[in-house]
Amino acid sequence: MTKTIDYYLSLISPWSYLGHERLIKMAQDSGATINIWPVDFSVIFPSTGGIPLPKRSKQRKDYRMQELRRWREHLNVQLNLEPKHFPVSDKLAATMVVNLREIDTNAAVQFAGACLKACWLQEHDISDRETLLAIAEENNLDGDALLSNSESALQTITQDSERAVELGVFGAPSYRLGEQLFWGQDRLEFLERALQK
C-alpha cells in the first residue's frame, strides 16, 4: 500500500524552502506520494495562536535569523537571509499550485519548489503575475491556464486551510502521515522514520 504525505506549506516560508527538496527525495526513496496543500496562514494563525512575523517580538525575530543561518550552514544550501521580495503575498502562486495539482500532483510539488527557490534564492517577487508566468514557462507549464481559475482556487485554499486547522496544523511546513503530524523541516528525520515502519 502506497503511503501518502500531506504537505502543508507557505510558498514564502524559508522553512518550507529548506525542507522542500529533502521531502521530495524522502518520498521518492520510500515510494510515498505527496499531496500538496498551500495553505493560508491568515486563516490558520488566528485559530491556532500563531503570530505573523512582522508582529513578533525582536527577540523572536533575532532568534529566527540565528536559526536560518544555522540551518543554511548545516544543510549546505544557498539561502538569502533577507530576500528583496519578502514578505509578499503568496496567494496568486498558491492558486497556481492548487490548479496544477488537479492535473498533476508531482508537477504541482515541483512548481511550488520553483516558487520557493524564486523567493529565497533568486530575488524574484512571487506575488507578481509576470514573474509567476515566467516561472511557469521555465517549468514547461501554461501559466495563463494555471491563473485562469484563481477565484475558485482561492476558495479552495481557504477551505483547505480550515481543514488543516481541524487536523492540527498550525505552522509551515507541516507534514502529515496517517494520524501523525510533523511540524517543521527539522522534523523530517522523524517523518522518515515513520515512513520506514
What's the arrangement of secondary structure elements?
Layout lengths: L3 E6 L4 H17 L2 E6 L2 H8 L9 H18 L15 H11 L3 H16 L8 H10 L4 H5 L2 H17 L7 E4 L2 E4 L4 H9 L1
Parallel strand pairs: 1-2
Antiparallel strand pairs: 1-3, 3-4
Helix pairs in contact: 1-5, 1-9, 2-8, 4-5, 4-8
Task: Tell me what you see in this structure.
The protein contains nine helices and four strands, in the order βαβαααααααββα. With 197 residues, it is an alpha+beta fold. The protein has one domain: Glutaredoxin, CATH 3.40.30.10. Helix 1 (14-30) runs parallel beside helix 9 and helix 4 packs across helix 8. 35% of the residues are buried.
Low-confidence stretches are: none
Tally of domains? 1
The largest β sheet comes out as: 4 strands, mixed
CATH superfamily, by name, is Glutaredoxin
The count of β-strands is 4
CATH architecture descriptor:
3-Layer(aba) Sandwich
Strand content: 5-15%
Structure classification: alpha+beta
Cα-to-Cα separation, first versus last residue: 13 Å
Secondary structure tally, helices: 9
Q: Strands of the biggest beta sheet: in what spatial order?
A: 2-1-3-4
Task: Work out the helicity level.
Answer: 55-70%
Shape type: globular
Mean pLDDT: 96
